[in-house]
Design brief:
It is built from 17 helices and no strands. It has about 300 residues and is mostly helical. It has a domain of about 70 residues. The radius of gyration is 29 Å and the shape is extended. The protein starts with a helix and ends in a 21-residue tail after the last helix. One of its GO terms (molecular function) is molecular adaptor activity. Belongs to the SGT family. Pfam families: SGTA_dimer, TPR_1, TPR_11. This is Tetratricopeptide repeat-containing protein. Keywords: Repeat, TPR repeat.
Length: about 300
Amino acid sequence: MSKEKGDIVKSILRFIRDEIESSKLDMDQKESLEVAKQCLESTYEMDSADTAVYTEATNLFSLFNVNTEVNEEAARIAEELKVRGNNYMKMGQYSEALDIYTEAINLNPKNHVFYCNRAAAYSRLEKHWNAISDCKESIKLQPTAKAYGRLGVAYSNMNMYQEARDAYLKAHELDSSNATYEQNLKLADELLASQPSSGSQAAASALPNPNAINFNNFLNNPALISTASQMLSDPAFVNMVSGLMSTGPNGDPNIDGFLSVTQQLAQQIQAANSNLIESLRQSMTGPNSGSSGDNPQQDPGPQNNQ
């Protein structure tokens, strides 16, 4: 199959996918389109799981409007739709915004802003491959810092940090005054530097660090001391613990009894002080050092002047 024919098929598949994800079709219509999509994929030996099918596909309407101008009325209506889509984004109605941006694109597939704004809607809906596809389409029409910035966010959300870094770097080059691009670029560099070079390193990093455990805080935890004192003064608890010393019929350790006692012990600790377990964890390892800064900063979303 020639490259030209392959590009057309990819564009058709992308169009069908967008229609299936649209909220304007009922389930029967979507099922019919799904069958058509599967037939095309089978006939032309394309796999929709291959991200290139969609991320490299040109918008279908663009193929039929390469040498034609968008009439003024269509462009005007498309701009009005864009404003409506932006308002939906501000209200957090991302699916509605997505549909409106798609209408605008259908009327004027040459406006890079529409793809960039729809990419923002896709990102909010966690459809990151779709966002990547729209960002690339926007960049193809007109490279902008905003499109590269949103491309970086989409790649980051897919844990593709090298691609994200490249996009943030380009965004920063186009708009060096934007602090968000600079911060996201720095974050991508940090995430790349922190990635383990082997599976064994990744497994080792998941294990607790003994040097990080503060045993002094653990043993002197007031909640632990108080709960232990209460339990040791309870005759029923003392009798329960004595069961640990018993053996099975053949003189073997009473494993079942041990597990039962352990379970009951945990239940009693939880009942005596529901916050003790978390308190012990904090006293041993300290507060959670994880940072929400591991996620890239999203831009505030499309505004009515864009």
